Amino acid sequence: MKKGFISLLFTLSLALSCVPMISFAQESREYTLLAPLPLGQGGTEVTRTDFAGYINGMYRFVLGVAGILAVIMIIYAGFVYMTTDAFQKKQEGREHIKNAILGLLLAISTWLILNTINPNLLQFNFQIQRPVTTVQPLVIPGSGSPDNGAAGPNNQFCTTCSSLAGTRLPLKQGQGDELDAEMIAKLQAFNQDMSGTNWQITEAFPPTTTKHKDQCHYNGTCIDANFTPGTPATATNIDNFISTAAEHKMIAEYEVPTEADRTRLRNEGATGTILVVPGVVPHFSVYNAQAPQTN
């Protein structure tokens, strides 16, 4: 009897935990019950309900049945314990009481777990919104637009820039030809490790875009880059670019114009940082990241 009661309560608890998951798989559509059931608020009988209302009522009913069975078992076990002098019977009574309490706690725990995860699961709300993850753009220390917000004469904001001539870095013509010396050194090492993937710098210093949010575009410590024509922007190539940049103490982010583009790349397996910037042509933004200091 003890094992059967515990099995029954376990089955009821399992059913309670599965109810919300089942309800989400159904459409909200009313139908007529074969017989009135106490599915309304306060146990009132109803003859028509939708699937959510039916499951909601059954959830309360099953939870109530579990509680009633536990109370009945506790009363029965208490009666056995009080009316017998046999040690074995008293021991059985204590075991029944303990098992009934454990079964009741098991049933209640399903409610507590679901309520902790999301209280709406207990309300069978079919309009639960998916969590939206927003990736904030990287903020480089000391960043900010210049006073006039535009690229001035060559080296106006880049006193540490050097020419890219002779560096063998792949540079798209007409897109600026200088960078900070430290950035050049990191990109040269990066380029050696990227020998199997064709890429190019699409914007260096001075920037061709009239306005930039980050000061790094005006001091040569960041670039825009992209794959060369013929090299596909696959999830593998994008992750390889980002991870290789990180190995050389640079931060690379891939920018896409729509959330659908980011979702597609995520579905293809991309794990690197992908930012949604409306209207942008897909490309990389690569920043010079300072190496962590060690004491």
UniProtKB/TrEMBL annotation:
Superkingdom to which the source organism belongs: Bacteria
PROSITE patterns (UniProt xref): PROKAR_LIPOPROTEIN (PS51257)
Membrane-crossing residue ranges in chain numbering: 61-84, 96-114
Record's keyword terms, sorted: Membrane, Signal, Transmembrane, Transmembrane helix
InterPro entries (alphabetical): T4SS_pilin
Signal peptide interval: 1-25
One Pfam family it belongs to: T4SS_pilin
Protein name: Uncharacterized protein
Species annotation: Candidatus Zambryskibacteria bacterium CG10_big_fil_rev_8_21_14_0_10_42_12
